[in-house]
Amino acid sequence: MDFFSHVLWTYVLFRSLGFAEQDRVLASFFGVLPDLAFVFAGLLLAGKYWLADRSFKRIRPRVFAKGLLVYRSSHSLVSFAVFFVLASLLSGFPYWLSFGWMLHILLDLGTHKGSPVEPQKPFFPFWNFSVKGWIWWRNPYFLIINWALLALVFFGFS
User: What distance in Å separates the CA atoms of residue 1 and residue 10, rounded to the nearest whole number?
Assistant: First the structure.
C-alpha cells in the first residue's frame, strides 16, 4: 500500500478508537515506520555503493538484495512484537500506538501481489511462511476504491 494510505488508515483507525490527536499522529508514524526503515536503509546502501562504484546500473541489484533483508525485518510481525513488548515494558503500560506498525504489515499482506518484494513473510526470520497477496496496490481499480473509502471514512465520519 502507498505511504499516504498507511498514514491515513492508521490515523482513521486511532481516531475511531478515541485516541487524542497527538497520539493519532504518533500512531500514524508507526503506520509508515516499516517503509521508512526500508527507504532509509536503501539510501544508506546506495550511498555506500555509489562511493565505491559510481554506477547505478551495477549497484541497484546489490542495494535491493541487502535492502530486502531490512524490508523483511521491518515488515515482520516478529519485529513488531519484540518492539511492542520492549516499549510496553519500558513505558510501564501497553504501548498501543505502535499497533500502527502491525496495521501496516497486515495491509501490505493483501496488497503486494506481483510486487518486487513478493512474497510477504510476516514471521521473518523464524518461519518461512509467505503470503503472495490478492492485489497490487498500484492497480488503478484498487487505488480508486482505496482512496474513495479513505475519503469517505476520513471526511464522512470525522
Answer: 12
Q: Cα separation of 83 and 55, whole Å?
A: 37
In angstroms, what is the C-alpha Rg of the chain?
17
pLDDT at 2: 92
Q: How far is CA 20 from CA 3, 11, 23, 119, 153, in A?
A: 22, 11, 5, 36, 17
Other residues' Cβ atoms within 10 Å of the Cβ of residue 65 = 10
Asked if the bond preceding 125 is cis, omega within 30° of 0, the reply is yes
> Which pLDDT score is estimated for 135?
87
Handedness of CA 47, 51, 55, 61 (dihedral sign): negative
CA distance 24 to 15: 6
Report how far Cα 120 is from the mean position of its chain's Cα atoms. Answer: 11
Phi, psi for 26 (deg, rounded to 5)? -65, -40
Is residue 131 helix, strand or coil? Answer: strand
Q: Under 8 Å CB-to-CB from 106, ≥6 apart: which residues?
A: none
The pLDDT tens digits of the residues spanning 58-94 come to 667 777 788 889 999 999 999 999 999 999 999 999 9
pLDDT (0 to 100) of residue 32 = 97
Provide the 10 A C-beta neighbour count for residue 51. Answer: 9
